[in-house]
Design a protein that fits this description.
The protein is mainly alpha-helical and about 140 residues long. The chain contains 6 helices and 2 strands, in the order ααββαααα. The chain has a two-stranded antiparallel ribbon. β1 and β2 form a beta hairpin. α2 packs antiparallel against α3 and α3 packs parallel to α5. The chain is globular, with a radius of gyration of 15 Å.
């Protein structure tokens, strides 16, 4: 299982630079989304015996839509890495989470960018916002 996750991470680390031009890299915007995403992950609420609730996934989808797949994948890796200091999960689960939090925001951002480009959608179109919702569901 860990080998598959490491291969997925290696693939993503090659694909992100290859799709660099599809992303809208913005340092200040990335920093703000990073701050709120990591902050949300570190202040997650524990529902005893059930799950942890945080808004970090919303931050990842926001990054995927606004910045693109590459920045969203990097944000996912940073968010999971920062959250590890709180959870201290075993290494195999940590690697699995990093792979998933890199892959799914990347795929969602890439699909969002390609569909908006092909369909000529802008934030002035209603379909753009329906696509944002669909991206959230796809990434989930």
């Amino acid at each position: 299982m860990v080998t598959c996750d490491l291969l997925m991470l290696a693939l993503i680390s090659v694909v992100i630079p290859a799709t660099w031009r599809l992303d809208a890299w913005s340092g200040p915007l990335f920093g703000v989304i990073l701050l709120f995403t990591v902050g949300s992950d570190l202040t997650a609420v524990d529902v005893p015996g059930l799950l942890w609730v945080s808004g970090s996934f919303l931050g990842l989808v926001l990054a995927a839509v606004v910045l693109g797949g590459g920045p969203a994948a990097i944000l996912g890796v940073i968010a999971i890495s920062a959250g590890w200091f709180q959870s201290r999960e075993p290494l195999k689960y940590f690697i699995n989470n990093i792979a998933n939090y890199a892959l799914f925001p990347f795929a969602a951002g890439l699909c969002f960018r390609l569909v908006t480009h092909v369909a000529h959608l802008t934030p002035h179109n209603l379909a753009y916002y329906l696509l944002v919702f669909a991206t959230f569901v796809f990434a989930l």
